[in-house]
Specification:
CATH superfamily of the largest domain: Response regulator
CATH architecture of the largest domain: 3-Layer(aba) Sandwich
Structural class: alpha/beta
CATH topology of the largest domain: Rossmann fold
Shape: globular
Number of helices: 11
Radius of gyration: 33 Å
Order of helices and strands: HEHEHEHEEHEHEHEHEEHEEHEEH
CATH class of the largest domain: Alpha Beta
Amino acid sequence: MTNLSKRSLMKAVALSALASAVLIGCGKKEEEAAAPAAAPAAAEAPKPPTKAAFVYVGPIGEAGWTFAHDLGRKAAETHFAGALQTTFVESVPEGADAERVIRDLAQQGNDIIFATSFGYMEPMLKVASEFPNIKFEHATGYKTAPNMRIYDASFYQDTYMAGVIAGSMTKTNTLGFVGSFPIPEVLRNINAFTLGAQSVNPDVKLRVVWVNTWFDPPKETEAAQSLINQGADVLLQNTDSTAVLQTAERNGKFAFGWDSDMSAFAPNAHLGSAVVNWAPYYIQSIEELRAGTWETKRTVWGVKEGLNDLIKIPETVPAEIRAKVDEIKAGMKAGTFEVFNGPIVDNTGKEVLAAGAVGDQAWRDSVNFFVKGVEGRVPAGN
């Protein structure tokens, strides 16, 4: 075969191979065109975290009312694991300052704002009317709006149990109470403490010193010392610091922690701590907001719901009294024990709750008297 013939043959083979490749490639394109791959589904945009703000009446510190609320805030953050962002402002005075702070938090784009003191009610109500798309929650008050609701705790249950202990431990039959403001939530605590003490010691009397503040350690110390000087040997308070308990310790007397575990601050004086755990409520409230089921209402929880408790009762308290407290607490959890159970008379002899009647929420909200055994009168205007 000549070189020309060889070249012609090789050229023909090459052209044939090229044609086959083109045909195969075209076939693949036609198959791909006939059955295109499914487009990937668009990823759902992640839901932005809920923003919640808290307004505190005192410093967070290491114990007390504001400390307890802040523990609840932290527990909520942990529960929602990145789906919740919180901020707080502490030591906000009640009144004009509170209104300014609440409005500022609303303008920052928070979804929900918790105001944690009774005196914040009117300022929050005013700001809530200006921001209808934000939810507002007020602790311990009684006024609501379409986007503002109320939450509260049953401290009078704790104070009744504390009273049972106090009545059994007093040697002078004189108890002392450092009061913040003469409003129903404080008055019913004073009365419950007295009724609890009288249930084991009918000879008990109670003296009250008002400080007209929620948190002021020097004033609380002065009030506690005044009560001790008047013969009180077991003290309770409705104020936020450890000052009352520590004053009792320095004087060799007894007292109780308030709002949080205060046993470490005065171990010799400490007879128990009336505590509140806000975490369950804050978690439920934010869950309702995120689920779109939040609605205006008033929520009052207590021992039954795990919000209130009396803890760290020492063995210096007689065993039979500790057993009695356990029995009362079990009844509160079951809903079978009522603190305000008639007949109850005030310290002027007037019947304020008839025999067989139970003080319901409306009755508790209107308490403006001292029960028999409490000395003095409720300050005018309350």
